[in-house]
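Write out the 3D structure for:
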Amino acid sequence: GLGNRLLVAAVVMQLAINFANGTYEVIWSLYMASLGASVAVIGITFTIFGIPMMLLSPPAGRLVDRLGGLPFAVGGGLVVAACGVAYTVATEPILPTIIGVIEGCAFAFVSPALYRLLADGTPTGRSSSAQGLFGAAGNVGIIVSSLVAGLLWTYTRLRSDDRPVRRALGAAVALIGFGVMAWRLWELLTGEA
C-alpha cells in the first residue's frame, strides 16, 4: 500500500514545508509593509525569492539523483525552519529580502528531494494515488497555516506593542512545525512508528 516509510516521509515533509508557503501567502505583504517596504519592494522580494529556485532547481535535482532525497529534504527543511525564525528579528525590509534568497536556495533543494522520496516510496502501479496524497498534504499545510497566520496576524495587530508577540509567535510556529516534522520523520525512519 501507500504506507511505506519513504512515501510517508515525503507526505509529512510536504505538509510541513507547505506551512511556510501558506503563512507567506497570507502575511508576507503585510509583514513587509509593516517594516516599511513599498509595494514595488514587496514585488521585488517575491522575484528575488524565486530566482534562486529557478536557477538552482535543475542542478539540485541532479545532485539529489546522485545522493538521494532524504539528506536534502531534511537539510533544506532545517534551513526553511531557521529562516522562519530569522524573519522574526527583522526591523527593516532588507533582512527579510536576504533571508528570502537563502530560503529560495533551500526550496530549490527541498522540492526535488521531496519528489525523489515520493518516487522512491511509491509502490508500482500506485503513482497517481501517491501523487494525489502528496498534493493533498501540501494543500492541508497551506490551508491550516493560512488560517493560523491570518488569525495570529490579526491578534497581534490588536496589541499596541505587537512586535515581541509576533516574533514569539512566528518563532513558535516555525519551531513547532519543524519539530513535529522531525519527530514524525525520526519515527518513520527508525521503525518506531
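The two ends are 16 Å apart (CA to CA).
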